[in-house]
Amino acid sequence: MNAHLQPSGSAYFLAAETQVPERHTLSVLVDNEPGILARIVGLFAARGYNIDSLTVSETEHEKGLSRITVVTVATPKVLTQIKLQLERLIPVHRVHDLTSEGKSLERELALIKVGGSGEPRAEALRLADAFRAQIVDATTESFVFEVTGKPSKIDSFIALMVPLGLIEVVRTGLAAISRGPEGM
Amino acid sequence: MAEQMTGAEMVIQALVDNGVEHIFGYPGGAALPIYDAMFQQDKVQHILVRHEQGATHMAEGYARSTGKVGVVLVTSGPGATNAVTGLTDALMDSIPLVCITAQVPTTLIGSDAFQECDTVGITRSCTKHNYLVKNVNDLPRVMHEAFHIANSGRPGPVLVDIPKDVQFALGTYLGIDEIGPSRHKSYHPATAGDSKAIELAVDMMLKAERPIFYTGGGIINSGPEASEKLRELAELTGFPVTSTLMGLGAFPGSNPQWMGMLGMHGTYEANMAMHDCDLMINIGARFDDRITGRIDAFSPGSTRIHVDIDPSSIGKNVRTDLAIVGDSGLVMEEMVRIWRTKTNQPRTEAIAPWWEQIEGWRSKHSLGFKNSTTTIKPQHAIQRLYQATKGRDVYITTEVGQHQMWAAQHFPFEMPNRWMTSGGLGTMGYGLPAAVGVQVAHPDALVIDIAGEASVQMTMQELSTAVQYRLPIKVFILNNERMGMVRQWQDLLHGGRYAHSYSESLPDFVKLAEAYGGKGIRCSDPALLDAAIQEMLDYDGPVLFDCLVEKHENCLPMIPSGKPHNEMILPDFEDDIGAVIDEKGRQLV
Predict the structure, then answer these.
(1) Partners of B397 in the beta sheet?
(2) How far is C-alpha B205 from the geometric centre of its chain's CA atoms?
(3) What ipTM was estimated for this complex?
(4) Scanning every residue of chain B, which has its alpha carbon at the shortest distance from the alpha carbon of A84?
(5) How confident is the model over B420-436, as a mean pLDDT?
(6) What are residue B171's DSSP bridge partners?
């Protein structure tokens, strides 16, 4: 495609967007102060960016820093804007696009409540073992499993639990970190 | 000198320490401790406004005409919400403001108390940064940081929300040098650009055959030295210069290399040159949609250099080939230095054919209009105002609409910081309070608000402020009894169905001026216009000038919605204006 005909968000642009949206994981290092999450979320809402998953927690208490992991779906051009717009926020130290920087680890935790008795209950236990899920609560009619791993692994486990008496699920959202010796 | 004082006293002390001489504000219950502290000092002068929106625009006019931070002080609840328009305006146009809002006591926050609102929540997206100060000992640091953030990097509004109990509380005040490093170690605005990139830019400039400087408000924000550097760079290179609405004054309107403003209502030569150039050097402008027109047909053959202090402006709307993140003044200084090491000649010969082409476009006289001996043409009125004030140090503010574009087209500037207008947000009602703010900063200068009769009524009450402080602003109203730009678009796009775009029951502006304690002048006869303008200029006090102009004059030239730069409507095509825009273009703004 002719580079001069790059599409744009301008009100004047009449042609359809031709870039393909991609899913990216961003790691954002911020000052842990009141309102910081609202600034991040407000920026995404105000500029029409997507949030697929969002994880926030303080990571370095002495320095007052929090790490925010955002999974977003956007075209490469918009991804660049998201990164630059995040960096404009005063309490934001750094933004890393873990997906485009290559090797990164992505993990999620889920708590999954499954009810039932008899053979389905036994099958759920066998599958939990195969997925290395922990039993963190049990009654005679139910289990709560704790499972960690890649989101795709959790998706598979939940899918298997549906016919066996899945009651409810809670997921933490994604935590991601780059591989290798370098920090953010 | 760590000193014990109340939060309210800290606010005043921090203003003094940050060099503030004037603030614009309006008191209220939650702000009373600060007002009491203000009452007991004489270093900071408070200008009492009539509406908090007025305070914000005054502070904008003050800031833009001086390069200093404009300061606003308002109360909680409605005081804060009324300030939102001006904060958004300042954010869009990168104007440094510090807005202090009072808040209900911390014990009442969240209880839906009287005059409580979530000020930091409401203003989060219309400020560069904002703070809610819950501990009095944080206040000195926050105040100093607010001034630093407002006026560094890409300038913008910063809001500090101070609950009433924090204003009363006793704490330790620390001066600017005593607070240590900023809480936000994350804030590192760009300064000098990358020398290698600048050298690359100069190399591109040395090879260009059809170059153009596309300059913007970033040069004004960088300070008067940046305007000097632009003049030097233009002289060194011999390249043509155009500017956005926000950048007018950075380059002298009388210079032969000046092509006039570009964009939707820019000159034919500036827009054609943007479309046909081989090298575009954007310094401190942001490829706004009013500038680019149709993006996929924008300047198809050009290589583009973009100098901007805000990295997120680069590549946001259009493709850029060479990005230089830095302060426009410093980058131009480096460009001048590097250019001098490579050559001592402008590229006069190499770009002679380009100038010839530009002269051809210029000969279309795209700002031309049919004058009249029976009715005052608005363009003519501005030209006469310009002639009557030529040679004086004059500051112009505007409202928003046709009159604003005509002022940009027909009132050339020689100096930066002389032109105050609402560009990004397009805020009707900006000009009159902005003029008040400019006049506060420059008590002896001539300050004129070129206004429309619709816009000016949005903040008309600030005339009372002008009278109170004996600020002799001149409000030159081009009265066509229409919201002229809306009416023009309805002609262009909606078959001339003038839905609510005409002004009925207009006030008698002469009597209105007199009611406020100012002077009113009315003129409808072109033959009497010069004398009436002179009467306005001679009067020592605020004047409302009701200039009755041609009602259905169109603001031309114009790039219609959905069209590229090379498809402008020139004054010659005016008769068929309704047929210019196609069905797709009608959907655009």
Answers:
(1) B420, B449
(2) 29
(3) 0.90
(4) B312
(5) 98
(6) B5
CA distance B443 to B455: 25
CA distances from B451 to B88, B215, B397, B474, B475 (A): 21, 25, 8, 10, 7
Instruction: With a cut of 90, say whether residue B563 has pLDDT above it.
Output: no
CB atoms near residue A3 (< 10 Å): 7
Cα separation, B529 vs A35, in Å, equals 56
B246 is catalytic: no
Catalytically annotated residue among B3, B41, B43, B114: B114
Could you tell me the sign of the dihedral formed by the alpha carbons of B378, B490, B88, A75, in that order? negative
Letter for the amino acid at A94?
R
Among all residues of chain B, which has the CA nearest to that of A78?
Answer: B316
Q: Residue B37 and residue B47: Cα distance in Å, rounded?
A: 15
B567 is known as an active-site residue:
no
CB B312 to CB A88 under 8 A? Answer: yes
Residue in the block written with tokens 């023009």:
B488
| Position B579 confidence tier, pLDDT thresholds 50, 70, 90 | low
* Residue entry with tokens 């000092």: B41
Provide the chain B residues 183-202 that lie in CB contact (below 8 A) with chain A.
183-187
Residues contacting B145, CB < 8 A, separation 6+: B179, B182, B183, B184
Of B294, B316, B318, the CB nearest to A81: B316
pLDDT in tens, B251-263: 999 999 999 999 9
Question: Is B567 an interface residue toward A (CB < 8 Å)?
Answer: no
Q: Which of A90, A94, A95, A184 to mutate to test the interface with B (most CBs of B within 10 A)?
A: A90
| pTM for the model | 0.94
**Residue in B186, B295, B584 nearest the CB of A90:** B186
Residue whose tokens read 């290179």: B237
Using left for φ > 0, alpha for ψ between -120 and 50, and beta otherwise, residue B110 falls in left
> B52 an active-site residue?
yes
Across the interface, which of B128, B149, B289 has its CB nearest the CB of A10? B289
Among all residues of chain B, which has the CA nearest to that of A39? B124
CA distances from A15 to A11, A49, B294, B296, B493 (A): 11, 20, 10, 8, 21
Task: Give pLDDT, residue B581.
Answer: 67
Name, in order, each residue with C-beta under 8 angstroms of B361's C-beta and a sequence gap of 6 or more: B268, B269, B272, B273
Distance CA B282, CA B379 (A): 29
**How close B174 gets to chain A, by Cα (Å)?**
22
d(CA B61, CA B180): 32
Q: If you compute the radius of gyration of chain A from its CA atoms, what whole number of angstroms results? A: 20
Give the 3-state secondary structure of residue B95.
coil
Contact B129 A90 (CB under 8 A): yes
